[in-house]
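Task 17 of the worksheet. Students: predict the tertiary structure of the chain below and write it out as structure tokens. Keep your answer in the requested format; marks are given for formatting as well as content.
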Amino acid sequence: MTAAPAPAPQDAVTVVGIGAEGWPGVPEASRAVLRAADVVFGGPRQLDLLPPECAAVRVPWPSPLRPALPGLLAAHDGRTRVVLASGDPMFYGIGRTLTALLGPDAVRVLPHPSSVAHACARLGWAREDVDVVSVVGRPLARIAAALHPRRRLLVLGAGPGTPAEVAALLRARGFGPSRLRVLEQLGGPRERTSSEATADAWDAPDADPLHIVAVECRRAPGAPRLGAVPGLPDEAYAHDGQLTKRYPRAVTLAALAPAPGE
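Model answer:
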């Protein structure tokens, strides 16, 4: 039996997670919240997963979303407002945006298993041993910081071409032998996992828009070894020859002791 969620504070916004399987995978407690809603916000793909028994007004997110969000929520103040989100709303999802805007006490979240949880289950990878990188609205180059031999990555795709873009970045960074798989529509009836291939040999067609790229990092022979501490070799930088020597760079950065986010 699914336990009923704690009552939401008056005027709180409830965020309900839903998976690729749609309504059949939504727990009864979350279904009850959606049935009782006056208005449901969400992306068109998520809103299309709701059955007719959810009679609320359906409001698709505008683009760009963040500047419009305060006014959109305020326009429906006093009504029972529910946000329908993909998977776990607090994991690279709308939950973070809403809690930053409204405060944690004004947002109740009913999560669904994330695509990352599904991917780890399919691959047999322990979640604590996996680095997750999202390139949704973020530069693809941020993957580079996670590239180390024998590391496992899950890349949240931004569009159908993301797997090919990831493969190209791996080749350019000296990780062409890395092994890739694409997991699509995780948890849904159209779930699919591609055959494994290296980044060097990657020639698969574009993926479903809802996908994750799984990467097992392998460094190519002769590729420069780039550690995670100060003192990267000169060849790690694009420069015109005017470059501080390697060891002064390392000492200076170590003395500055930058913290994460700085």
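Marker's comment: The chain has a mean pLDDT of 93. The chain has two domains: 13-113, 116-216.
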